[in-house]
Amino acid sequence: MSEYQYHEFRAVDRPLTPQQQAELRSRSSRATITATNFINEYHWGDLKGDPLDWIQRYFDAHVYSANWGTCSLLLRLPISALDKATPDPFTLPSRSGAQSGFIDAFSVTPTTDHWIVYWGFNDDSGEFERFWCHEDGPGWMDSLLPLRDELLRGDTRPLYLGWLARVCNGELGDDDIEPPMPTGLGTLTPAQSDLTEFLQIDSDWLAAAASASPALPDHETIDPDLDAWIALQTLESMQATTRLLLEGRSQEAERALRQRYLAWQREHSSKPKSSPLPRRTVAEIDAARAIARVRRLELERQRREA
């Protein structure tokens, strides 16, 4: 089987300048290069550059796939997108000393101005047919890029899926504790569902983990605190938000508003304060996985009979 590698980079927040496009062209004469994209397939040789360096300098996203069973996703977020402590529970080393024989499945790394979020998968068994042909790379970028918007809006489900990928990769032991449970893990967005496929996350592990996740709130339900908070906003704060919207920084505006509202709500909410969900060990989730597997096999049997 001949070698196949696929690299796709995407610029979202800021298009590439002509100078930057020329710099990238000097690295590849065959790649498709535009103000927002760098795409190339390799059947011999390799990318003449470091994807992590290119993400830090040029792009907001990178998808990679190779026919020896390796794929990865890199996303670059503004440093203001996540609180400093948010990624820690999802990326802590195993306290039981568990280690995988493969590259880590998930990491979140801060730089001066950005967070670099990485998800990866390695098929050592060679059992996944998607890697057998030269077609796995195209299409993943469009499927997975919405994860960036979801993270910018405060959705931590992609982070939890990264932690779950670490479990499936053998990086965590029975005594390790799961990170804070996000809402809606049982009803993933299309991009999050695609991420589980991209990382080949075991469906039984996902079902077991999601069994403890609260359902997403009904969007038709009126939040009694929202109008009270809006009435307290000053003219200056509203003008600052309007400026961000007119400058095309809608995600930043939404993120700032959401953070201010949630901070106020924690102090003044009329709702009774709920206790945080208990965090399970990997062993406890594994026990639930065995139950999920039995249910899945029974459903599959019923479908076959039908």
Question: What descriptive keywords fit this protein?
Answer:
306 residues; alpha+beta; 2 domains; seven-stranded antiparallel sheet; 40% helix; globular
Secondary structure layout:
Blueprint: E1 5-10, H1 18-25, E2 32-33, E3 37-42, H2 51-57, E4 61-66, E5 70-78, H3 88-91, E6 106-110, E7 114-122, H4 140-144, H5 146-152, H6 157-168, H7 190-198, H8 203-210, H9 224-231, H10 235-246, H11 250-268, H12 282-305
Antiparallel strand pairs: 1-3, 1-4, 2-3, 4-5, 5-7, 6-7
Quick recap of the structure?
The chain is α+β, with helices and mostly antiparallel strands and 306 residues long. The chain is built from 12 helices and 7 strands.
What integer is the average pLDDT? 90
Name the strands of the widest sheet in spatial order.
Answer: 2-3-1-4-5-7-6
Total count of domains: 2
Radius of gyration: 22 Å
Strand content: 5-15%
Principal-axes geometry comes out as globular
The secondary-structure class comes to: alpha+beta
Biggest beta sheet attributes:
7 strands, antiparallel
- Element-by-element helix/strand order: EHEEHEEHEEHHHHHHHHH
Q: Roughly how many Å apart are the termini?
A: 40 Å
- Report helical residue fraction: 40-55%
How many beta-strand segments? 7
Low-confidence stretches: none
Tally of DSSP helical segments: 12
Structure description:
It is a single chain. This protein is α+β, with helices and mostly antiparallel strands and 306 residues long. The protein has two domains: 5-214 and 277-305, no CATH class; 224-268. Helices cover 40% and strands 14% of the residues. The chain has twelve helices and seven strands. It has helices spanning 18-25, 51-57, 88-91, 140-144, 146-152, 157-168, 190-198, 203-210, 224-231, 235-246, 250-268, 282-305, and strands at residues 5-10, 32-33, 37-42, 61-66, 70-78, 106-110, 114-122. The model has no long low-confidence stretch (mean pLDDT 90).
